[in-house]
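B., you asked whether I could sanity-check this one before it goes into the benchmark set. Here's the sequence:
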Amino acid sequence: MGLTNLRPGSANKESSGRGNFERKFDKKLRFYAKVRDTVVSLAARKEIGKKKRLRSRQKKMKAYDLSTLGESLPELSAPQKLPHAINSKLNCKSRQRLVEKESKRLAAVLNHPSFQLDPLSAIHHHLESTQPIQESSNQKKPLGKTRKEKAKRKKTKHPSGTRSMDL
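And here's what the prediction gave me:
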């Protein structure tokens, strides 16, 4: 009572003369062919997707094109010059010079007699004298009457607690 041919079709494989090595090799070849086909199809999808993204980027760039807006704006009378410190890059030497210059300036401020008497008023006075006066569009509007003021007026108009109803 031997156990032979437990799997269906196992006798056919053995009789075909192909060894285990050949079957594994064929299986690997089929797997690599599938992988190759998948890579090719993914690359094609990626190229199609890139073209679509490029087109949408170009449309977005057109939306951000503000050259027409710049042409319609009025020209400034004199171009404003930026300070030299902003234009130049800060390397080690220039940074060191800047630190020395600012430390001297700080020492001068700390030794100034008005700063020693009242630092806050000295800073306020300095800012008033150096900063340009800006005309703000949101000037203080006359404030409307508050609830408290309205309540007081109602009380003063009708000193007695009763009101007559005139229709």
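One thing to flag: DSSP finds eight helices and no strands in the chain. Otherwise nothing jumped out at me.
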